[in-house]
Q: What sequence folds into this?
C-alpha cells in the first residue's frame, strides 16, 4: 500500500515538473528518485521568488543543497499525496505567472 502511494506521489510530481517549462528536472527520467525530486528553474533569476512563494505556503526545505543549488522536494512515506498536490498546484500557478 505504501509503495502504491509513493508511486502516485512521484507520478504526480514528475508529471507536473515535465509539463511546466519554467522548471527543469536535473536527473534522467529512468534514474529519478521517488523520495527526493531535484530540479532547477529555466530562468535562475526566478529562484528567490519561487522559494518565497513556497515559504509563504509553509513549504520549507525546498532549497537545494548549498553545493548543488536548485530545489529538492522530499516525498518520504509520511508525506501525504495532498502535500504533493499542494506543491504541484503552487508550481502550476508560478508557471502561469512566469511561463
A:
Amino acid at each position: 500500500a505504501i509503495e502504491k502511494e509513493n508511486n502516485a506521489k512521484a507520478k504526480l510530481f514528475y508529471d507536473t515538473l515535465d509539463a511546466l517549462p519554467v522548471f527543469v528536472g536535473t536527473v534522467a527520467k529512468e534514474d529519478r528518485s521517488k523520495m527526493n525530486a531535484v530540479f532547477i528553474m529555466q530562468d535562475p533569476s526566478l529562484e528567490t521568488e519561487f522559494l518565497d512563494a513556497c515559504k509563504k505556503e509553509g513549504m520549507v526545505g525546498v532549497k537545494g543543497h548549498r553545493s548543488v543549488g536548485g530545489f529538492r522536494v522530499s516525498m518520504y512515506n509520511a508525506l501525504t499525496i495532498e502535500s504533493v498536490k499542494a506543491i504541484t498546484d503552487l508550481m502550476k500557478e508560478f508557471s502561469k505567472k512566469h511561463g
Remarks:
- DSSP finds three helices and three strands in the chain.
- The first strand starts at residue 23 and ends at 25.
- The CA atoms of residues 29 and 74 lie 17 Å apart.
- Helices lie at 2-19, 47-56, 81-98.
